[in-house]
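[SOLVED] Need 3D model of a two-part complex

Original post:
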Amino acid sequence: MNIRYQQIKGRSLGFYALIAGLGIFILATLGSVYFIEHHGHYVTGMSNRFVWGMPHVFALFLIISASGALNVASIASVFQKKLYKPLSRLSGLVSLALLMGGLMVLVLDLGRPDRLIVAMTEYNFKSIFAWNIILYNGFFVVVAVYLWMMFERRLNKFTFKAGLIAFTWRLILTTGTGSIFGFLVARQAYDAVIMAPMFIIMSFAFGLAFFILILMASYKWSERPLGDAIVNRLGNLLGVFVAAVMYFVAVKHLGSMYLAENAGIENFILFGEHIYTPLFWYAQIILGGLIPMALIYHPALRGNRSTLGLASLLVLIGGVVQLYVIIIGGQAYPMEMFPGKEILEGYGDIAAYSPSLAEIVLGIGGVAVALIAVTFLVKFLPFLPESLADEISDPHYKTK
Amino acid sequence: MSKKLNRRDFIKSTTAVTAGVATISSGITLTTFAAEDSPVTNEKRWGMLIDTNKLTESNIDDMVNVCQEENGWGSETHSTGAQKPDWIKKVKVRDKTTGKIDMLPMMCQHCEQPPCVDVCPTNASMKREDGVVLVDKHLCIGCRYCMMACPYGSRSFVHEDLSNQKEHMPRGKGTVESCTLCVHRVDKGGIPACAEAVSSDGVIFGDLYDANSKINQTLKKIQSTQIRADLNLNTGIRYSGI
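Solution:
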């Protein structure tokens, strides 16, 4: 059956309330940015030890989620799975919106955001950051073209090629994001090439969780039919991705522990007495990994949308925590500057970070920007199929 | 015959103009320091040998104080301890096995292969031909990636507005900075302020390549080391006694 795409009406009270709520949050975000940039970073919890703080946690969380949110479209156009095809446009949109939110946070946390033009014109090609600037900008172009091929009926035949380019691009992009950390040779917390594939698999899970929540919310609020075939399939896929993330986390830590050089940082994160250990075990592993898997795979909860929604939300919360443990926990522990020696003074204590409100608001502001972009665009462009009922979307649907 | 400007020509000409402007403007770079008499060449490699056995704690404190005085950092009013700049700091270490305690001054190690220069997206972190690693404050966007990459924690971020800066050492809120090996002195034939502050042979500054220099000759004679030598960065700052 043909899929008909249609803008949402967007005239309900709920729609305006959502826009207003997000808008107020974005205003608060701009206020925080002004506050930080006007005074300088001394008003944040960041320091010369905590070089990157809460804004980076959210920025990287959104950027890796962005590349993962494109997966649904890739599965449809590159791997030719018909069930996912009607979701492709939304997948592209969510992906661009999340990237926009993430980049906004990243740029607004710079010491000199006014010099963005320098970052766009001066490139050091040995720098992973410089590569990422090109990869992020390119991603906007590649996904925009991809969406255009999907929207324009005459160009539909190019969807496979555009999708293949976008899929390849996103894999390289997340490799770049992971390598920001993977190539930091001096820091025991990061120096591991596994960071790149781990970030890719994290992007699969976080991006899909965002996608599921946005899909279910938009169909519920616009009162359009959404069949079980799609929802259950996405749920199962999320479970697989969450398991894969946990596998990579296990391999990363086990591999790292094997090196005597890394014993300090691994003990600090996994068995330490600071906030990072409970965050790792309770929030990242249990709340963001095991519980979502149980919610998805427990036979009694199969097909239950509320629990799938909760599972997706927990995956996202676990994701933010995971990045917090990686970025903040990794900086809290000192670098191994004098192997065999203990530093008594001058450097080397375990540093304490307490994020300021402005930083947290800026970070969450990135999520608000992404959500408001999706909300507006589904009103003005036909991103969402009128119906995703099983008889329309499921190629294997059989009338009972 | 006057030719009507069609869309293709318009695009062509605007592209040419844009490319032209981009080419010209990319050539305009404000350089932080420039040698006055002779150009900086790679025939020299500035370095410093720090002998911790010859340095007392008060020597090291002096080194920190004169650096602050010379370069005008450390009087920030709003920044917390961990936010204040730290171009040079006193580090005390204890051997885990023997319990031997050493004290040393730590600053930018002026690596031959500086990780900060590798990671800097805008080329703001740079290494001069003579081995001095600097930050071009006009190009620094304050991303702090260099601070993540530096194995020595030697870089500082300016967390607040500054006043009463030294003329020879421009600094700015939202950019990264570190020890410049006092290039403003060295380029005029002088030596870094911290080296000058120590009267003994505890700190020797000079050209590592010059076979007649004191630093070169001393390094040939005595046992010395580089911090995190395993990273193979070939630092310009060498230590003896630790």
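Edit: The longest strand of chain B covers residues 88-95.
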